[in-house]
Amino acid sequence: MSREGFSVLRQVGSLVFRALRSAFLLRGIRDTQCGFKLFKRELVSQLFPKLQVFREEAPSGWKVTAYDVELLYLFDRAGHAIKEVEVGWENRDESDTKGHSSELARYARESISMAKQVLRVNVNRVRGLYDDIGPASQ
Asked: How do residues 13-30 score in pLDDT, each as one tens digit?
């Protein structure tokens, strides 16, 4: 996947995130955080309500999350095929709604939050919160 305008900080952060995530979940998936996802409606209707991330931390305002990891894990656990397709991507983040802290500070907060969410999905898996979805494939 080409990512035009992806800073060195984000490249390193992406490598660290993928290593952390794949240590616990979704080893066969390269990029869980790309915003381009396509799902069958009936599967989303079945699996989206099972997401724990929004139960544990109610969303408010603009927020970077790792809900993608949990949702893809649920699809995988239920035995549904996940296919990655390469897309071109350009970083044109021009939002003025993300707060006024420095990019580095915001990125650090987002990264820590996402790492906690990935660990929480793994803890939820170990606790059996996803057992009613189907056999674990990992």
From this structure: 778 878 888 777 888 888
Is 56 a domain residue? yes
Query: Total structural domains in the chain?
Result: 1
In a domain, 7, yes or no: yes
Q: Which of 129, 27, 10 is nearest to 72 (CA)?
A: 27
Distance of CA 126 to the CA centre of its chain: 18
> In which domain, by residue range, is 123 found?
3-91+101-133
User: Could you report the per-residue pLDDT of 39-74, keeping only the tens digit for each?
Assistant: 889 988 888 888 887 776 666 655 667 788 888 899
